[in-house]
Amino acid sequence: MQKYNISKSSSFYAIGLSYKKADADIRGHFSLDEDSKLSLLKQAKENGIESLVVTSTCNRTEIYGFAQHPFQLIKLLCDNTRGTVEEFQNVAYVYKNKEAISHMFRVGSGLDSQILGDFEIISQLKISAKLSRKHGLLNHFTERLVNAVIQASKRIKTETAISSGATSVSFASVQYIFKNVENVSEKNILLFGTGKIGRNTCENLVKHTKNEHITLINRTKDKAEQVAGKFNLLVKDYANLQEEVSSSDILIVATGAQRPTIDKHIIQTKKPLLILDLSIPKNVNENVQELDNVSLVHLDHLSQITDETLEARKAHIPSAEAIIEEVKAEFNGWLETRKFAPTIKALKHKLSDFASAELNTQRKKNADFNEAQAELISNNIIQKITNHFAHHLKDDDVSTDESLELIKKVFQLEPSTKNV
């Protein structure tokens, strides 16, 4: 990417891992909470990384950024998570320059989501870009790219039906409960943690079950009260967790902790208990399955539940891809102008020098020299000439590199203008 005068570093990379090759356990090793993200950004700044965007969701963890070698970004990820380089190499992907740009478009547009058409990632991308900007780690290229991806995502959402129908992990959770639990409206349901998927599942449960026995518990009680207030639900203290788990028929866990928050020792009931773990990393210890009365279902299993709605969405993939190509072409057009912007700038300076020299000569020759009019005319001519060259360089039928070299040679532009 150096030739586009975007970065001092050599290439733009997308490195990461997703549900496609990494199971929930491995994704958990590379999951980044808010503190880990801040630590990663701080380390990136100290290491001289110029621009970086980090996303970490239940389905993927990715870093988009400039580096001389992708290992710089991989090391940042491994240093700030429980994952190792060896684990990463087994399941990861590394995209460079144009491939990295294309990957961000597909991810942000819901085409690479675990459930096709799930646009949850785009809000993560927005938040991550804001965080990077706040820490001085968002250059003009990356900000422009993120905005282009957001634009494509909006258009796909409004111009296609790829996200139509109620298909999401939260809806799949409710579907699963309906299929496997009788008389759902009469069961005691406990939501532990108020992560976004958990909140959405809670909303779907309230909407579809008319259940009046839903209780919320969160380590930070006021967050639970905010959610509960919206749906008129009961909130209990974190200290009551074991008691509430034991009186529940369905336990939904969405805590976002880095290690399991529920294990078999907390379950003191013998009646059937269905546990849905909607967290990455997993927040329910596998040892709960040693209890005969407990059924454990994880996020990955729920993501595999497909229906006619999901199948219908596939028909809209070509339309979504066409929108991506259109927006990407606009972005690449802007990127191409960055390639010759320094030369046009240098040419304008050179022409201004010519004009200044000529104006000085004319001042000496003419006693009634009209300074303002001469300045206006010369500036207009300079703008017309540089615009003409810029339009020529944008022409698809000409070799931009050859034209740039010719302009530099004819006008004797300094080599140093190459990376202005």
UniProtKB/TrEMBL annotation:
Record GO biological process: protoporphyrinogen IX biosynthetic process from glutamate
EC number: 1.2.1.70
Pfam families the UniProt entry points to: GlutR_dimer, GlutR_N, Shikimate_DH
InterPro entries: 4pyrrol_synth_GluRdtase, 4pyrrol_synth_GluRdtase_dimer, 4pyrrol_synth_GluRdtase_N, GluRdtase_CS, GluRdtase_dimer_dom_sf, GluRdtase_N_sf, NAD(P)-bd_dom_sf, Shikm_DH/Glu-tRNA_Rdtase
Broadest EC class assigned to this enzyme: oxidoreductase
Catalytic reaction(s) noted: (S)-4-amino-5-oxopentanoate + tRNA(Glu) + NADP(+) = L-glutamyl-tRNA(Glu) + NADPH + H(+)
Transmembrane segments: none
Domain Tetrapyrrole biosynthesis glutamyl-tRNA reductase dimerisation stretches: 320-413
Pathway the protein contributes to: Porphyrin-containing compound metabolism; protoporphyrin-IX biosynthesis; 5-aminolevulinate from L-glutamyl-tRNA(Glu): step 1/2
Quinate/shikimate 5-dehydrogenase/glutamyl-tRNA reductase domain: residues covered: 179-305
UniProt binding sites for NADP(+): G193, T194, G195, K196, I197, G198
Domain Glutamyl-tRNA reductase N-terminal: 15-160
Site (Important for activity): H103
Domain comment, as recorded: Possesses an unusual extended V-shaped dimeric structure with each monomer consisting of three distinct domains arranged along a curved 'spinal' alpha-helix. The N-terminal catalytic domain specifically recognizes the glutamate moiety of the substrate. The second domain is the NADPH-binding domain, and the third C-terminal domain is responsible for dimerization.
Other remarks on this protein: During catalysis, the active site Cys acts as a nucleophile attacking the alpha-carbonyl group of tRNA-bound glutamate with the formation of a thioester intermediate between enzyme and glutamate, and the concomitant release of tRNA(Glu). The thioester intermediate is finally reduced by direct hydride transfer from NADPH, to form the product GSA.
Family recorded in the similarity comment: Belongs to the glutamyl-tRNA reductase family.
PANTHER family for this protein: GLUTAMYL-TRNA REDUCTASE
Protein name, per record: Glutamyl-tRNA reductase
Organism annotation: Algibacter pectinivorans
Gene that produces this protein: hemA
